[in-house]
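Chain particulars:
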Amino acid sequence: MRSITLALRYIWRKRGRTISLLLILLVVATTTLTGLAVRDAAADAQQAIRQALGGVFTIEQDESNPENWTNRQIEGMGYQQVFAGKPITAELCGRVMAQVQGIRGCDATTEQVLVPETTDGRTLELIDDGSGTDPASEQAFSTDDFGDTVTVIGGTDSRFDANFAKGYLVLAHGEPVIDPAARTRTDRDGSDDDADGGTGVGTDDGVVGDVLIGSQLAERNGLRIGDTIVLRRATVHAQMSGTSVEQTRTPVRIVGLFDQTAKSSALTSNWSMTNAMFTTMDVVDHSREGTAEEGFDKVSFYVTDPERTADIAARVQALDELSGGQYVVSQDTADADAVSEPLRNLDALVLALVVLALAAGMVILCLVLASRVKERMHESGVLLSLGFGRWAILSQYLVEAALVAVVAFALSVPIGAMIGQFVGDGLLGMSRAGTGGGSAGTGGGLTSKDGMTVANSDMMSPSFTPNADMGSIHVVIDGWTIAGLYGLGLALVAVSVGLSGMVLMRRRPKDILAAMS
């Protein structure tokens, strides 16, 4: 108590020097506090990105294995090399989930390009949203009705389609499309086929299945949930496969509408995500016979804990039914990495800033406190001659500096709260400079059994550029951040006082008084 009283008296007596010390500590404290808060915000943002975009791995057919390819004679086209590996089935989802814990859902998908029509044969008016990336291809593909085709994704559960699971698309109205044959036990218990948006294959009204379409496309064509549209193959595709267009006409019922939350792009505007549709394998196979036999393009699995994705993917790869070189398991981190890269750069930048602030603060504090110790050397010599110990005098100096530091740290909290978001956004903008974006795409294309390339390659599939806003930070100064500031700050003050007091600790009272006289 006596030390605090003496410290307060000295602080008041030397108000000018106290204010200068307060300002130095305030600058160091504000810089450190802001840096700690920005680092915490960046860590929270990275965790949110991992939850939204991470935690996914895929099973695809192994196209790199030469044993999975064969030469086959295609009628009217001669011999071609086609993929003949083991197909991916919807049942594979369930078997993997039954054997490996920690997976919250999966979706097997295949892609085709089909022409959407009304039930009276009128082609739907598509939306040109400017997402086409190749005007030359758009012009070349516009011949006949091929320019009216849209991307149709046949899957087992649209809730776990990559575009929906990663938040690029959201179900605005209606129900998801879930293939009854691929429903999990949880989906089946206590629900009928239509409770969760399941397909109505083989219904009395001739509808083959359900479909999700974009809200903008529905509005453009006056469609709503419950309406029926028709999907069919383009004339050129039907002719090449030896079937008639009429045989490929597939009635589907609209059960839901989706909206986009991010910008997408595609080779041509008609294949953009704005015009895309989501349905089931039965619908795709009805439009293009043989698709079900060839199987899905890939299966995407979503894990409960993104931190365990690599471990769970390794366990899936080790399953007996995936052995033999037929399938390959890969972890999809492209989108998460693209959005997280500026945040990782920001973390390194802020860490360097905090370390630099603490180091500079220690040097300045040592110089200031050493000057004060030197000025008070006569006072220290008198106290030593009166029986005060060196540690007691040094403790007095420490109490004085600590009291000023506590006030400086308290003042830095509101200042840091005011400038923290501004500083964080500025540093994040610097870290984003020079970093490239990523896009969400689907797997590579395969040559089908009829000799045609299935339209599921990265070139033809619509893809999303991860929204930079997903990597934004929200800087908040909480109790833990303030506690970290006080811990680092008081440690810095203690070390600085100790270093500046080394002169006092090495000299005897007689030497100090003799030097002063």
Remarks:
- The chain has a mean pLDDT of 77.
- The longest strand covers residues 103-118.
- The CA atoms of residues 122 and 184 lie 37 Å apart.
- DSSP finds 18 helices and 14 strands in the chain.
